[in-house]
Amino acid sequence: MTVAELLKQAQALSPQERDELVQQLITLRDANGDSATPQPKTGAEIVAMLKAMEPIELVDAHIEDPVAWVNAQRDKRTQQLKSYRDGEA
Asked: How confident is the model over 10-68, as pLDDT tens digits?
């Protein structure tokens, strides 16, 4: 059922029934809002989560200088986009 269909049905209600519907919808939204909002994690929880994660493979891990690494990524991206501009890809 779409929102438009629900709205048509709501328009058929009496004003008192509409008020009751609005109150029930607000109550439903507020009740679901509390459980849908994630609670912030503590530092210990974040550390535990990071330790439990699988190790990741870094791109160009052999480049130790952060500036050189960023420049290498930019150069790669430029070359990749150049192939699209030239119609090669």
From this structure: 999 999 999 999 999 999 888 766 556 778 999 999 999 999 999 888 899 999 999 99
Phi, psi of 84 (to 5 degrees): -70, -40
Q: Which two tokens stand for residue 22?
A: 């609005």
Interatomic CA distance for residues 23 and 20, integer angstroms: 5
Q: Position of tokens 């052999």?
A: 62
The single residue listed with the structure tokens 């986009």 is 81
Q: Please state, in angstroms and as integers, the Cα–Cα distance from residue 56 to each residue in 10, 50, 53, 61, following that order.
A: 52, 11, 9, 11
Cβ(33)–Cβ(27) below 8 Å = no
1 pLDDT band (50/70/90 cuts)? Answer: confident
Is residue 65 within 8 Å of residue 59, measured between CB atoms?
no
